[in-house]
Amino acid sequence: MANTVARLVFGWLASREFANQSIMYGISLLLCGISTFVSPFNDSHEFLVCYSVLFGACAGVYICLNAIVLVHFVGIDNLTSSFGNMLLFKGLFLLIGTPAAGWLFDETGSYAITFHSDGIILCLSSVLLFIGYALNKNKLKKSRETSDVLNEGNV
């Protein structure tokens, strides 16, 4: 339910002029990573409910913003190929991740290491997104400055 509600709320919020979809996406990935990393530390029912709601809501946010954030990074002309590549890599890692989690459980006797490593990977992906966002923003700023200089010469 949290996933569905988050998709509706944040999909609407992302369409507002003041919203920064890339930042929303990155924060949702970061919260997913932090919540996944800390999830093995407590197994009470209340904690697991809070974890499930937070993870579900954050996953809903980044799922509904995938295409929007891709357009910000690669442009509308490259959306279909970049979306296909993204799904390819998601599929490959999902295919690898499940047996890897089973192997880690077999080796350690606990799923904690799996949750910790998955949490770290999600946090790192959000950090990479923020770095890419900053680089992309800087690139767009320089492009606008160059365009403004060229347009002044034509006037």
UniProtKB/TrEMBL annotation:
Top-level lineage group: Eukaryota
GO MF term list: monocarboxylic acid transmembrane transporter activity
InterPro entries, sorted: MFS (IPR011701), MFS_trans_sf (IPR036259), Proton-linked_MCT (IPR050327)
Keywords: Membrane, Transmembrane, Transmembrane helix
UniProt keyword Calcium present: no
SUPFAM superfamilies cross-referenced by the UniProt entry: MFS general substrate transporter
Transmembrane segments: 23-41, 53-75, 87-105, 111-135
PANTHER family: EG:103B4.3 PROTEIN-RELATED, MONOCARBOXYLATE TRANSPORTER
Protein name listed in UniProt: Uncharacterized protein
Organism this protein belongs to: Mytilus coruscus
